[in-house]
Specification:
Blueprint lengths: L21 H10 L2 H23 L31 H36 L1 H16 L2 H20 L1 H15 L3 H14 L3 H8 L4 H9 L4 H24 L11 H8 L8 H28 L7
Helix pairs in contact: 1-12, 2-3, 2-12, 3-4, 3-6, 3-7, 3-10, 3-11, 5-6, 8-9, 10-11, 10-12, 11-12
């Protein structure tokens, strides 16, 4: 008997690996943007502070103590107290929750309106002229006077129907969302105009696919990049707008703290107690700056032309 040679796998091709997800490439590009990483860290830290802060610092932000009014920073009051003896740090945490909630909700409404109008205007030629002239009309309107008119007209009906806090929240979110969707609509429309002439969209249309399925399966997934970038910038815009309305006294009630309201309350005491205006102004600046850096990182990471550089 002769020994049979054992076959070897020397010439066999190595086993194929699973294809790398595109989102890993996006994360690698985003991680290489140092400003975006620092901005994301700052934003997540602020969100964690305002969300979980009451569990650690359980001081009532509305509790008054006249005997301890205008107290300096101490262990019992890290940021001091205001003219009514209320803890400024507790009010900063509560105001941050409200300001971030307004920013996120208004951003969602703005993206919904902007994406809907942009997709309809870009895909359906007969709607393009009407929707874009509507967009130009909203862009031509002065933003701050329009917001003031909306607040003055709808403040009383909404507060009577939903209560003061809920009614003002709905009013502020609706006013910011309705007046900030135009840039998103124009960006999405431009991308949809280019996408609807691509081969995969023309092939889907030739096979009899309905426009609704083409939009949801082929168009929307390919315009998510500018939508996500617009989302990050929309949060910053909504927070600044809410702060401006609260600073003018047209936002939430005085006993309902937001960063804009706290900034407004601190202005009369700016010379004697500058920290009253410094801390809410610093919080607004840090949030807006960090979100802008995150938006820059997302823009670079989601652009396939520069990914991997």
């Amino acid at each position: 008997m002769t020994d049979t040679p054992v076959p070897t796998n020397a010439g066999a091709s190595p086993p194929s690996q699973a294809p790398r997800s595109q989102w890993w490439d996006v994360w690698d590009q985003f991680r290489s943007h140092k400003g975006a990483m620092v901005g994301a860290a700052f934003f997540l830290a602020i969100v964690a502070l305002v969300v979980f802060g009451p569990l650690i610092w359980d001081v009532d932000p509305t509790k008054t103590n006249i005997r301890e009014r205008n107290a300096p920073m101490s262990l019992s009051a890290p940021l001091g107290t205001d003219q009514l003896g209320r803890d400024i740090f507790a009010r900063m945490i509560e105001g941050g929750r409200i300001s971030l909630a307004v920013g996120l909700t208004a951003m969602g409404l703005s993206l919904l309106l902007g994406t809907l109008i942009g997709v309809l205007a870009g895909y359906f030629r007969r709607l393009d002229g009407v929707l874009m002239r509507l967009t130009d009309l909203f862009l031509a309107l002065p933003l701050l006077p329009l917001l003031l008119v909306m607040v003055l007209l709808f403040r009383e009906p909404l507060t009577a129907a939903f209560g003061i806090e809920t009614g003002i929240f709905i009013l502020i979110v609706s006013a910011i969302g309705v007046t900030s969707w135009m840039q998103t609509a124009r960006i999405v429309r431009g991308d949809v105009l280019a996408l609807k002439e691509r081969e995969f969209v023309l092939a889907a249309r030739a096979t009899g696919t309905t426009p609704a399925k083409i939009i949801t399966r082929h168009v929307l997934p390919n315009v998510m990049s500018p939508i996500m970038v617009s989302a990050t910038l929309g949060i910053a815009t909504a927070i600044i707008t809410e702060s401006a309305l609260s600073f003018l006294g047209l936002g939430f009630p005085p006993d309902f703290p937001t960063w804009g309201r706290l900034l407004n309350d601190g202005v009369p005491y700016l010379q004697q107690y500058p920290g009253r205006a410094f801390w809410p102004g610093l919080a607004i600046s840090l949030v807006v700056l960090s979100i802008n850096y995150v938006g820059d990182g997302l823009r670079d990471a989601l652009d396939p032309r520069i990914r991997g550089r």
